[in-house]
Design a protein that fits this description.
Layout lengths: L3 H9 L2 H12 L4 H8 L3 H13 L3 E5 L4 E5 L1 H4 L2 H14 L22 E2 L5 E2 L14 H15 L1
Antiparallel strand pairs: 1-2, 3-4
């Protein structure tokens, strides 16, 4: 699919995969520690770790008997997306009692992530706009053209 979100979800889009990445952000490195933290079946964890390594989101180091999994630069770049999803969950799914706080190195709670324009204005669902980018294929361009035509009617 000609969509960055669809491709990102293809790499990290299921429940277990994002939780593995979250735990790696927490500092979990060993298979047994991921399994204990998540309560995930060994076969599912093994498959997800292999997929994350193949996608260059995690690297596998250590020995064959005791591998260590660490976030790559590509994996670390998922931090804003994970924090945004956690903050959304804190606001909408846990009744104001977040189970995990996201803080800076000094222990100060991070501010909610926002999408901003180049001028600094907050962009929300009412003000955001989407348009075909340089990687858009013919189908994507046609989709946006049809959306625009529907708005013009």
């Amino acid at each position: 699919m000609n969509c960055s979100l669809a491709r990102a979800l293809g790499a990290v889009g299921d429940w277990w995969t994002l939780l593995i990445v979250r735990d790696a952000m927490f500092g979990v490195k060993r298979f047994s520690d991921f399994q204990q933290s998540l309560g995930i079946a060994r076969n599912i964890l093994s498959a997800r770790l292999e997929r994350l390594v193949a996608a260059d989101i995690l690297s596998r180091q250590g020995t064959a008997a005791r591998p260590l999994y660490e976030l790559t630069a590509k994996g670390q770049a998922l931090l804003p997306a994970l924090v945004a999803l956690m903050q959304w969950g804190d606001a909408w799914e846990v009744n104001g009692a977040p189970p995990v706080l996201v803080t800076d190195a000094a222990g100060r709670k991070v501010k909610p992530l926002e999408v901003r324009s180049p001028s600094g204005a907050v962009i929300n669902g009412a003000t955001v706009q989407f348009s075909p980018g340089p990687g858009a294929d013919r189908r994507t361009r046609a989709f946006f053209k049809a959306l625009q035509a529907a708005k013009d009617d």
